Amino acid sequence: MWFGLWAISQLIVLSIIGAFFGAEKAKMLFNSPPLIFFWFLLLFLLIAGFFTYPKLIKSPGLLLMHLGGIFILIGGMAGSRFGIELTNKLFNQQKFQNGFMALYENQSQNKVLIEDPVEEYKQLPFDIKLRNFRIEYYPNENNIKNYCSDITIIQNAKDLLNASIKVNHPLHFAGFHIYQYSYSPQTPPYTVLQIAADNGLYIVYTGYFLFCLGVFWHFWFRRTGANHVH
Amino acid sequence: MFLYLSAFIFSALDRKKIAKTIFAVGFLSAFAAFICRWFDAAHIPFQNMFEIFLSMGVLIYPISIFCKRKLAAPGQTFDMLLGVVLLFPAGFIFTAGKQMLPPALQSPFFIPHIAAYLIAYVIMTKAALTAFRGFSTHAPDSDELTYNIVSLGFPLLTLGLVLGSWWGKIAWGDYWAWDPKELWSLATWLIYLFYFHFRSIFGKKYPKINNSLVLAGLAAIIITLLWVNLSRLFPGLHNYAS
Question: Which among A23, A146, A212 is the nearest to B236, CB-wise?
């Protein structure tokens, strides 16, 4: 538990430092070798906690929260760049964490620009064709309501499915999420899509679910009666 | 706001009954303003700082009543003052200009993510007031009360964080982007997490440290909430409010 207290205090300090760095540098900080060591240590502490503190297993709320924490950490690791490289080798895949694709109307391609850690192009196992890009406006106003790319997924020279990708409405296909990211108003216009692997995502979501279940059970519904009195 | 203020003055003067009535009327008028704004802006008033503080000014009354009835938490007088503090920025600091929701905010997550956070923030502020009471006066039950109020707010704080992360995956492409506001909200959550672990080791042995942690939590909340306005130097994804 002392270690747990120490680990949490370290994370508080790091988050505050990270907040002053801005997102890009903070991401580098939290993925740097000392922090990778820290994440594994935290995972070890959470697992060791079950053996040292029987209370964590006996109390369903505490069990769910700490299990949730373990899932979130493992999912986060699986979705990191190193996690994806590892699963690529293990399962002979060609996935990447995050990249961008610019498309003119009626153009189709499978090349994705990766920016991090070095700029390079990678290939998707399918092609994306932009049929139409449009901007939706609020009725009778100049305010933009949404950006929308109508695309077709093409695999083995066959049209597989049509979809409209908007902000807040990504497409999930073959282990990737495809997002409306940006556009250019020039003529002819082009759209920029963001493509991100879903590695570890559902492990993280499971962790979130377990943690939320545990936290509400433990603090709100555990004791009978509304008074939280011991 | 003036109704909350006069409620506070009456309560401070020990005219509890009048104060309670004015507090209730103050809530009703804040709630009416909230509803009008909802119709006027054509979306729930959660978008800019004016709307956020107005919403929190509405929330203080039900939370104050709930804490009193269910947790036997005193301090209604200070809740009235807190109502003034919450509505003051809406009235005199932030401009009331309304905007249509930009594409990124049009999502089913918009209401629950922000509502969970606002309710949690008001509850945690109330907890910090109770913790502060532990320092200023001799109040032996302050530690226990503070713990109960933090226990009420922490699940909502967690829910806000998790919903935000889930929404981030759908809107921005990642469930965690290391954005400054995200990191401040994480630090806030971790401070309360630290509080629970610390208290489960030492119990009520160090009530002052327990209470200080709850005050630190409030400080982190204030920084998280105002971060966008405090630092225009650190651009982040969360800059919808500015």
Answer: A23
Q: Count the Cβ atoms, other than its own, within 10 Å of residue B35.
A: 11
**pLDDT value at position B77?**
82
Distance from CA of B5 to the nearest CA of A (A): 30
C-beta atoms of B187 and A30 within 8 A: no
Q: Tokens 């009048």 appear where?
A: B18
Low-confidence ranges of chain A (pLDDT < 50): 224-230
| B residues 141-160 lying closer than 8 A (beta carbon) to A | 144, 147-148, 151-152, 154-155, 158-159
Mean pLDDT of chain B: 83
* CA distance, residue B63 to nearest chain A CA (Å): 14
The length of chain B in residues reads 242
A168, B176, B222 from B46: Cα distances, Å: 18, 22, 17
Confidence tier at B15 by pLDDT (50, 70, 90)? low
Q: Where are the alpha helices (DSSP H) in B97-141?
A: 110-136
> What's the token pair of residue B171?
């809107």
Measured CA to CA in angstroms, residue A192 lies from A23, A163, A173, B240 at distances of 21, 15, 17, 22
Choose the closest CB to B155 out of A8, A215, A229.
Answer: A215
Across B190-223, b (16+ Cβ under 10 Å) vs e yields bbbbbbbbbbeeeeeeebeebbebbbbbbebbbb
Question: Which A residues in the span 13-32 are in contact with B, Cβ-Cβ below 8 Å?
Answer: 15-16, 18-20, 22-24, 26-27, 30
- pLDDT bin (cut points 50, 70, 90) of residue B114 is very high
pLDDT digits (tens, 9 = 90+) for B56-98: 989 999 999 998 888 888 778 888 888 888 888 887 777 777 7
CA distance B94 to chain A (A): 22
Give the closest residue to A61 by CA, choosing from A227, A181, A213, A229.
Answer: A213
SS3 at position A110: strand
B-chain residues within 8 Å CB-CB of A19?
180-181, 183-184, 187, 227, 234
pLDDT for B216 equals 93
pLDDT higher than threshold 70 for residue B149: yes
Which residue did the predictor score with more confidence, B208 or A193? A193
Give, as one character, the DSSP assignment of residue A130. E
For residue B91, the model assigns a pLDDT of: 77
The reported pLDDT for the residue numbered A7 is: 79
pLDDT value of position B239? 57
Yes or no, beta carbons of B103 and A219 under 8 Å apart? no
Task: State phi, psi for A136 to the nearest 5 degrees.
Answer: -95, 140
Q: Which of B102, B175, B177 sits opposite A204 (nearest CB)?
A: B175
